[in-house]
Amino acid sequence: MQKIAVITGANRGIGKQICLELAQQGFKVFAGMRKLENSPQEFNDLDITPSLLDVTDVASVDAFATELGKQASHIDVLINNAGVMGTKALADFDLEEIRWVMETNFFGPIQMTKAMIPFLKKSSDARIINISSEMGAFGSLPIGGYGAYRMSKTSLNSFTAILSSELEKHNIKVNSMCPTWVKTGMGGDAAPGSVEEGADTAIWLATASAIPNGKFLQKRSEINW
């Protein structure tokens, strides 16, 4: 049976690369994005379905799930990749920016996971992969800067750790991973890593026959929360 994956924030950067590599490995991919006109040309030659999706909008997530149900009875992999950075210092107390970042990076994955759970439970080997960042690790927090982003990723890691134990009985593995600093719209051209390197751990978690559960990973190895 063909494996099926759902990826959010799929039209560029790491999300786009994950879609391409999974499709090249035989997956049917549903690529969530806020504007279908932004769908990459490369998707046209692969088994990738560009799908309208705004993870901050409950109605959009529900509509995505309804449309998915018309085309798939299950999914094997959910990759919560959609994310935003924010620029303000936490001490600026810009609540509008903090809410925007948290809605996208933390509540978005929760809402997506909730909507996808019925599909994941129908897989014999389901995986949820949350794209996080080492900037959310507790040891890095005193460095400061990008406070809303850091808090959102710390929260996402907590969600990962707790959910992994609660879903284990359903044979659903849940992990977070850090793609490292790579050349994307968010990472910028100064980043030392390639987008392929950034996607590698997510691809491994999606395809390897044996993977951990409830871990925070970077370069296929566990790192500290």
From TrEMBL:
UniProt entry tagged with the keyword Oxidoreductase: yes
One GO MF term: oxidoreductase activity
UniProt entry tagged with the keyword Kinase: no
InterPro entries: Fungal_SecMetab_SDRs, NAD(P)-bd_dom_sf, SDR_fam
Cellular component GO terms, alphabetical: cytoplasm
Family named by the database record: Belongs to the short-chain dehydrogenases/reductases (SDR) family.
Stated name of the protein: NAD(P)-dependent dehydrogenase (Short-subunit alcohol dehydrogenase family)
